[in-house]
Amino acid sequence: MAKAMVYLQSGGPTAVINCSLYGAIQEAKKHPEIGGIYGSLNGIEGLINDDLIDLRAEDDDTIELIKQTPGAILGTTRFKMPADLGADLYRKVCDTVKAHDIGFIFVNGGNDSMDTCDKLSKLFAQRGLPTKVIGIPKTVDNDLAITDHCIGYGSAAKYVINTVKAICVDAACYKKGKVFIVEIMGRNAGWLTASVDLLPIGCRPDLIYLPENVFVMDNFLRDLNSIYQVKGHVIIAISEGIVFERDTSTARVDAFGHIQLGGAADALSAVVERRLGLPTRSVELSLPQRADPILVSKVDQEEAFACSQKAVQSALSGETAKMVIIKRLSDKPYKVEYALEDVSKIANAEKEVPSSMMRGITRLDDSFREYLRPLIDGEVHPRFKDGVFESAVLKKAKVE
Amino acid sequence: MAKAMVYLQSGGPTAVINCSLYGAIQEAKKHPEIGGIYGSLNGIEGLINDDLIDLRAEDDDTIELIKQTPGAILGTTRFKMPADLGADLYRKVCDTVKAHDIGFIFVNGGNDSMDTCDKLSKLFAQRGLPTKVIGIPKTVDNDLAITDHCIGYGSAAKYVINTVKAICVDAACYKKGKVFIVEIMGRNAGWLTASVDLLPIGCRPDLIYLPENVFVMDNFLRDLNSIYQVKGHVIIAISEGIVFERDTSTARVDAFGHIQLGGAADALSAVVERRLGLPTRSVELSLPQRADPILVSKVDQEEAFACSQKAVQSALSGETAKMVIIKRLSDKPYKVEYALEDVSKIANAEKEVPSSMMRGITRLDDSFREYLRPLIDGEVHPRFKDGVFESAVLKKAKVE
Predict the structure, then answer these.
(1) Closest partner CB to B254 (pick from A76, A249, A273)
(2) Pick from A56, A209, A367, B363: CA 20 to 30 A from residue B203's CA?
(3) Which chain A residues contact residue B71 at CB under 8 A?
(4) Which of these three, A291, A311, A329, is where a domain ends?
(5) Which residues contact B30 (CB under 8 A, 6 or more apart)?
C-alpha cells in the first residue's frame, strides 16, 4: 500500500531551498510506493495544524518554475518544538500523520530544523508509528556538522563573491575614496564572509573579519588606516556576528528589546568616522544573499536535486532519523558522494571555519579557497519575461 | 590630418558606463580622421593634469571585457570646474589639448558633467580652438532634461526590480513577518524607486515613496500599520532622498559634518519601531544598484553603444556643445532615434517624475509602466570564469 510523503521547509530560505523541494517531488513521482506528495505549510506548523497541500495538483510548468523561485515556497518557520515528547503539540502531529497515512517526512533545514527532525523520529519510535523521517541539509551559513558543506552555501557564496567584486571595482574609481564596510551573513560561523577571499588581489576586500576570531578594535582601526593612507580607499568584509562593544547611541534595539543582528557595519562605520575621521560607507548585503535567483551556483543546484533524491530513496529503503550528508571525494576533479548520518549527531551542533583554513586574523588559507572553488561553479540562466525573472505561484490545494 | 579624441567618464558609475566607452572606441576605430584614441583618467582631472592613456594600446579581449566591467574603468570624478573661464585650470586644459592635438572630447556623465561639457565648449570657442565637445548621457537617476531617458537607468531599474521581487517573495514566507523598508538610489528624482511598481501584485512593495512628494510621517505610519494588520508583513520602497525629520540620535553625520544620504531606511525603521512597536528591517540596495554587471538590460547596453556612435559621428561632422539625446518614437514596438540638443539646455537641469505618471502618493500610473517596460528588456550573459564574472584591467599606457 502506497503511503503519503510530507515535505517541510524550515528556517531561513536559501536561493536553492526550492530546488531541494523540486528534487524530492521529481524523485517521489518515480516511486509507486509513494501516494500523496504533500507540502506542509510553514514547516512543522503545518504538521501540527493539519495544514498540508497537495503538490501533485500543481502543473508541470509551476513545478519547473519553483527551481528559480526565491523564498520558501511552502512557507517556513522558526518555531522550536518543546523537549517534552508528551506535549500536546506532538499529539497533534501524530493525529495529522495518522489522518493522512503519512509514511515519509522530509525536513529541509539547518541546525534547529535537524533538532525537529530528531524529535519527530523519537516521537514516532515512542508511539510505534512506522513513519520515516529524513533530514535534508540547507543553510547559507554552511555550519552543519559532519557534511562537507551545506546546500545553499555555494549559491550564497557565489552571490556574495560576485557582488563584492562589483563593489570593489566600483569603489576604486574615485581618486580619493572611502572606507567601505561590507556586512555579510553569518552569526557564529564565518563561512560566507570568508568566501570573498577567493577574489584576486585588486578586486577583493583588504581585510576580512570572521566571528571565529576575537575582534580587537584598536588593531582594526590601525590596519584599515594604514591601508587607507596608501590606497586612498579600503574595503572591509565583516560577518554580521562579529562581536565588539557598540556605542549605545548607534545600537539598534528591536521591538522586543533585543539588540538586532545586522547593523554591525553601521555601528563600525560610526566608530571609524569618530576615531579616524575618515569618510565611510556601510554596505549590508542583506536579504539578496539568500534570495537572489540569478547568481545561483549550478553545482549547488545539482547537489540540491541529488541530496533530495538520496533522501527519498533512503526513506523508501527504510532509513529514518538520518540526515543526508555530502562527502567530498576529490577537489580536482570535484567529486562527491551522498551518504547518511544520524540526525542526532547533527542537531544543534555548529561547524565553524577551522583555524587551519585561516591565515592570521584577516585572510584565508589556500586550503579554504580549494574547498570553496568548486562550490560556486557553473551558471544557471533563469527564465525571464519582460525583463523580470519568472517565479512559481502554487495553487495550494488543501489536503482534506 | 587625423586628430586625437579624448574620452571622459564623470560622476557616479552605472552598470553600462563602460559600454558607452566601448561604443565610442569601436566607432572611433572606423574613422581615419581620428588618430589617437585616449582616455582621460578621472574625468576632467586627466585633462587638467595631462593624465591621458592610450586606448589603442589595449588588446581586443580587454576591450571586449570592458563591456561587463563595473565602475568607471578610466576613473571618475566629482570635481566641479570653476565658473570663471580665465581660471588657471582652464589654461592647463588648453595646454593638454594643444600638446596632443586633441580634436574631439567626449564627456560621459550626468547633470554636473554636462556643465563641464558646456564650460569646455565655451572655453574652446573663446580661445579659438577647433576642438569639438559632445556629451553622452549617463545616470542611474534618469534625471537629465530633454532626453526620453538616460543610459544606465534601464540596467539600474532592472537590478532594482529583480532584487526587490526576490526580497518580496522571500519576505512572504514567514507567517508573522516584519516591516521591510527598502532604500533605493535617487536624491531628488524618484525614477529608480518608482521602477518597482512594474512588479505584479503579490511580489511588489505595498507602498512606494518618491522624493517628488511631500512625505507625511503620520500618513506613512497609518498606511503601513493597516497593511501589516492584514498581511502580517509590509514591504515599503523609499528613495534615499525622501525628506523627513530624523531623530537626531539615529542620523548619521559624515567626517565633514554633513548628514549622510543613504541611511533613510535605517532612520525610518527606528521611527516605525518606536511609534508602532513593529519588528522592522531596513534593506539598502546600495552600490550594487549601479555596479551589478549581471542584471544589465540588453536594451540599455545597446543604446549605450548607439549613443556613443552618434556622439563620435556628430563630432566628426563638426558638431560641438551638444549632448546626444534619445527620442522615443513608439512604445510598442519600442523604437527610438538619436538626436542632438544644446548641452547648455541640459547642464544643471533636473527632470523629476511628472505627477501625470503618479497615482496618488504611493503608486505609479500605467503611463509610467509603459514608459519603463521596454527599458529593462533583454538579458546579457556576462562571461564567467570559475564562478566569478570576468572584468577588464587596462594596461593604461600613458600618452606622452
Answers:
(1) A273
(2) A56
(3) 166, 169-173
(4) A291
(5) none
Residues B254 and B309 in one domain: no
Residue A399 lies in a domain: no
Catalytic choice (B112, B118, B141, B300): B141
**For residue A212, what are the domain limits?**
153-291
What CATH number corresponds to the domain at position B101?
3.40.50.450
CA dihedral B53, B55, B61, B66 (to 10 degrees): 70
Which residue is it, cell 582594526? A220
Residue A219 falls inside a structural domain: yes
Output the average pLDDT for chain B: 94
Same domain, B128 and B241: no
Q: Which of the following is catalytic: A112, A115, A118, A141?
A: A141
B74 and B50 belong to one structural domain:
yes
Is A394 part of any domain? no
Backbone angles phi, psi at B158, to 5 degrees: -60, -40
Among B13, B77, B255, whose Cβ lies nearest the Cβ of A277? Answer: B255
Residues of B in contact with A284 (CB under 8 A): 283-284, 286
**A287 in contact with B at a CB cutoff of 8 Å?**
yes
Give residue-wise pLDDT tens across range B349-375: 899 999 999 999 999 999 999 999 999
Tell me if A113 is assigned to some domain: yes
- Assess B57–A contact: CB distance below 8 Å, yes or no: no
Specify which residues A252 forms β-bridges with.
none
Element of type H or E holding A85: none
Whether A365 is a known active-site residue: answer: no
| Chain A residues close to B291, C-beta within 8 Å | 166-167, 169-170
Do A62 and A166 have their domain in common? no
Across the interface, whether the CB atoms of A75 and B376 are under 8 A apart is answered: no
Convert the pLDDT of each residue in A77-123 to its tens digit: 999 999 999 999 999 999 999 999 999 999 999 999 999 999 999 99
- At residue B294's C-alpha, the angle toward residues B292 and B297, to 5°, is 95
Which residue in A147, A157, A156, A153 sits closest to A337, CA to CA? A147
DSSP string, A288-357: HHHH-SSS-BHHHHHHHHHHHHHHHHHHHTT--SEEEEEEEEETTTTEEEEEEEEHHHHTT--PPPPGGG
Q: Which of B71, B165, B277 lies at the smallest CB-CB distance from A173? A: B71
Count the domains in chain A. Answer: 2
Domain boundary among A291, A314, A333: A291
pLDDT tens readout for residues A25-73: 999 999 999 999 999 999 999 999 999 999 999 999 999 999 999 999 9
